[in-house]
Write a structure and sequence with these properties.
0% of the residues lie in helices and 50% in strands. By secondary structure, the protein is mostly beta strands. The strands form two sheets. Strands 2, 4, 5, 6, 9, 10 and 11 form a seven-stranded mixed β-sheet that branches. 34% of the residues are buried.
């Protein structure tokens, strides 16, 4: 059983930056593709970004491409989401997810989830 714990959320002004972290335990981290989803109040959970097991491949939602960067450190069992040029529409709860596949885009493909971390962007 894999446990995922997110951190790094908070309140930031529009145009600012935040880095989210996702610490994994209880499994072989390098066996899992890792990713991030977000859910704003009253909206469905949406894909943000994902990274393959080795870190070679990445996927991004069009809405964050060029502003967000996903990365991972397999030695530290941690995935990251660097968020730059934040906009008010990025305000949401951000969830880390893991899947035993090469890479993913859909939440149905993910087996493990963190509890979420809140990101609020003020305009």
């Amino acid at each position: 059983q894999v446990q995922l714990v997110e951190s790094g959320g908070g309140l930031v002004q529009a145009g600012g930056s935040l880095r989210l972290s996702c610490a994994a335990s209880g499994g072989t981290f390098s066996s899992y593709a890792m990713g991030w989803f977000r859910q704003a109040p009253g909206k469905d959970r949406e894909f943000v970004a994902a990274i393959s097991r080795s870190g070679i491949s990445t996927n991004y939602a069009d809405s964050v491409k060029g502003r967000f960067t996903i990365s991972r450190d397999n030695a530290k069992n941690t995935a990251y989401l660097q968020m730059n040029s934040l906009k008010s529409e990025d305000t949401a709860d951000y969830y880390c997810a893991a899947a035993r596949m090469y890479i993913f885009r859909r939440h149905e493909e993910c087996e493990y989830w963190g509890q979420g971390t809140q990101v609020t962007v003020s305009s």
